[in-house]
Specification:
- It is built from 6 helices and 5 strands; from the N terminus they run H-E-H-E-H-E-H-E-H-E-H.
- Strands 2-1-3-4-5 form a 5-stranded parallel beta sheet, sandwiched between helices.
- Strand 4, helix 5 and strand 5 form a beta-alpha-beta unit.
Length: 134
């Protein structure tokens, strides 16, 4: 009975632990809040304030999932994933954006993202999407 209950538990319920995540977000408050949420679910989170800083250090990342903003200074989320894929980094990735459209979604998927989420995204949906691609 206990094993059956544990198997039916949704991924967003404790004691499920998220994989390690690389968070690339230029908005400090959004970054802080997302990192806090992800850490509260057991994830190790590496935070970068923009795509260029992440690319400079990308060989050192140990994330099982990349969570990246679309609109960032110097290097947007689409160019970031294109460069990562060109370097052979196939880490599953989710792009977040406050500028969601079907066209942008398709461009992001074509560039190499596994999923695209509109900001703000409810915590349960974000967690479920991370779980589904890792």
């Amino acid at each position: 009975m206990m094993a059956e209950t544990a198997q039916k538990r949704a991924p967003t319920e404790a004691p499920y632990t998220l994989p390690s995540i690389v968070l690339i977000e230029d908005d400090v408050e959004v970054s802080r809040s997302l990192a806090m949420l992800l850490r509260s679910r057991g994830s190790t989170v590496q935070v970068y304030p923009d795509g260029r800083k992440f690319l400079f250090n990308h060989m050192a990342h140990s994330g099982h999932c990349i969570l990246a903003d679309y609109k960032m200074p110097r290097l947007d989320g689409l160019e970031l994933i294109r460069r990562l894929r060109a370097l052979g980094d196939m880490t599953p990735a989710i792009m977040m954006t406050g500028f969601y459209s079907n066209t942008l979604r398709q461009r992001a998927l074509d560039a190499g993202y596994s999923d695209v989420l509109e900001k703000p995204t409810p915590a349960e949906i974000l967690i479920d999407r991370i779980v589904s691609i890792t």
